[in-house]
Every structure is written in structure tokens, then in C-alpha cells.
User: Fold this.
Amino acid sequence: METIQFEGIKVGLKQSKDGFILTLAVHPEDLPDDLMRDFVGSRYQVVMVRLGDTDQPLSREGEFPGDHAVKLAGIVCRDSDFWAYILTVHQDEVTGEKQAAQWLCAYLSIESRKELKTDIDARNLFIQLKRSFDLWKAQ
Assistant:
């Protein structure tokens, strides 16, 4: 099986009754002949990676650190190992996700984990806590 590879630029996205329609602009020199010859309605398995300014794959974590921290905080609070870490290292008993979220918010001095999106100080403290948890878990 031969793959078709080309670079495209997202120029549009809309929704139809069948799903989303992604529109890409492809430079004429990059457009594969096989793709041009295939019939409308042909199916493809698509793999895409977003490129940065240096033509290297772009990490979403670095692009939106606040969003990543909010997501990671939700994952950590559901982790029973994190509950054990809180008990072992911080001497506070946590027995579920809701308690872990409350403990985390108190520890970070925030009202909601969503504040990690915009509160840089709380986010930095969370990153330190997450590193400490990861080291503890690796023991």
C-alpha cells in the first residue's frame, strides 16, 4: 500500500448532515496525481500533524499550557494513586475525585481547577506538585 503525502493549509470547516467538511488549500506542486484521479466519494484514512514555523510537529501542550493544566488536573484528581500521594506526603485523607479536587483547589488557593487556565502562579505550583507526585509514584 502506497501512502499519499502532501502539505495543506486549513482554510475552512463547516458542518453538513453527514459530518464535518474540512477544506484544505494544497499548493499545485504538492497535490498528488493519485488524489486528483480518485473519484469524489473515495474514502481515505487520514493522519495529520500540525506543523510549526520550523516545519516540525507542533506540541499542543506548549501552545495552550492553561488548557493542558486544567485537563491534567482533572486526570490527576481521578487517580487513586494521587489520593495515596496526598495522604502519604501531605497527611490529608482523600477518598475520591471530588475530595481530591477540593484538596487541590485549597492547596493551589483557587476556587476551581478551571482557574489553572489563567492563573499562572497556581499553574506553576500545580506543575511542581505534579512533578512531586510523578517522582513519588515512580518509587
